[in-house]
Design brief:
The protein is mainly alpha-helical. It has a domain of 105 residues: Cytochrome c-like domain (Cytochrome Bc1 Complex, Chain D, domain 2, Orthogonal Bundle), CATH 1.10.760.10. It contains eight helices and no strands.
Length: 180
Amino acid sequence: MDSFEINKIIAAVLLTALLIIGIGKFTDILFHVDKPKQSAYKVEGLEKAVSSAEQEKTKIEEKVDISKLLAMGDLAHGEKVFKKCSACHMIASDGKNMIGPNLWSVIGRQAGSIGDYKYSKAMVAYGKNWSFEEMNAYLIKPQAYIKGTKMAFAGLRKEKDRASVIIYMNSKSSSPKSLP
């Protein structure tokens, strides 16, 4: 096979590609369709349903009786569940900060108050004290509770898990708070 035949083959392939592209562009011009500005199938009340569902969820979360919730938990179960947290947090009186801050005496402490740990701006701005209620709401889904926090944890959905972890963290303190 000489170079002239190879050139003819390459030219045929390129011409075919150009024809396909050209025909596609020509048909786009020939059959131009304007997209509608509004959807043809408008669903009424969709925004209202979403917002009302979110409001009901927040009302349910707000009405949690912390004494009943903490009655569900136990210390041994909390120690087991806290192993998820121990990947990033230490909970010892002389413990160091890891990826997250040391959680020794966290119940009753102000959020974002450990001096040698670099908190997110959102956590420093939050500034409330970690009560049982605050910790419960935070542990459901941390990033939703404090927007902008750098804690990348999905949260604890089960009430018994949250209650047990809160009891366990409260027990790891120089002066544990009395349970409500």
